[in-house]
Specification:
The chain is mainly beta. It has no helices and 24 strands. About 0% of the residues lie in helices and about 45% in strands.
């Protein structure tokens, strides 16, 4: 307050309920299973996973558990070498930062009922751009065939940004960066400044097939060499200051400004 006192107010709020829906598991070959569930958890949550247990186990037998990975509400986890002579059941779970664990409903699993499945690959839209480098993120879950290589492909755009979609065709001038892990990251370095790029996660199987995630786009930052103050002739007089969108300024503003000189040249400067 103006008198130097403090006013406190009590407020309450309700968080959204956590939703889990177990999906049909993918048995990629005998005893090797990809568990899946739908949830409303964010992609960045890490304390997620699945529990599984045999249907004939008594209650005092502990369930087995493993981690899962999230992409836009779908969580997946891979179980290797589960005994296919028995029926099992599984359920998704999430443990909060406060240590509370939440579970979904149990769903049945027959690890002997296998089929052929393609790998799952996604390209996250979240990206960190720093000057002329960018850190990208993707997701890969193997299918029936082994993974031979995985990573990212990227290329400069000659047109406007593409709509987000599964990539069906890739240009010839792509650069390939290898990566590893179910959730993989890579840093794309030595890019052109102020340039639009597209990128896509990919996985190549042992059978020679390549599968792509969604095509995403980003733009690199301004060239720092282009905004450094430079010496100019005293006869070269400042005529006007402009913002980046071309608006004439009455005075310099914080951020990047463009100075127009009497000889027709211009330069960018940063005002802090």
């Amino acid at each position: 307050t103006e008198e130097g006192g403090r006013i406190t107010t009590d407020a309450s709020f309700t968080t959204k309920p956590l939703n889990f829906t177990a999906l049909q598991p993918k048995v990629i070959f005998d005893g090797n299973v990809i568990l899946a569930a739908q949830s409303n958890l964010d992609d960045e949550e890490t304390n997620v996973g699945f529990e599984w247990r045999r249907t004939d186990w008594p209650d005092d037998f502990d369930s087995k558990s493993g981690i899962a990975y999230l992409y836009e509400g779908t969580m997946e986890g891979y179980i290797r070498s589960i005994n296919s002579n028995y029926l099992w059941r599984f359920r998704p779970y999430y443990t909060s930062k406060a240590g509370n664990t939440y579970y979904g409903e149990w769903k049945g699993l027959d690890p002997s009922d296998y089929s052929y499945f393609e790998p799952t690959v996604h390209t996250y839209s979240t990206i960190s751009v720093n000057g002329n480098s960018a850190e990208v993120k993707g997701y890969v879950m193997r299918g029936t065939d082994n993974v031979a290589s995985q990573g990212f492909m990227y290329w400069p755009n000659n047109t406007s940004f593409s709509l987000r979609r599964k990539a069906t065709s890739i240009p010839n001038n792509v650069t390939v960066v290898q990566a590893s892990g179910n959730v993989m990251t890579a840093t794309l370095e030595d890019l052109e400044y102020e340039t639009s790029y597209s990128y896509v996660a990919f996985v190549k199987t042992s059978e020679g097939e390549t599968f792509y995630g969604e095509q995403q786009s980003f733009r690199t930052s301004f060239d720092p060499d282009g905004i450094k103050d430079i010496e100019h002739s005293p006869l070269n007089i400042e005529e006007a200051w402009y913002s980046l969108d071309g608006k004439k300024l009455s005075k310099p503003q914080k951020g990047i400004n463009i100075i127009r000189y009497s000889d027709g040249t211009s330069k960018k400067v940063v005002i802090k």
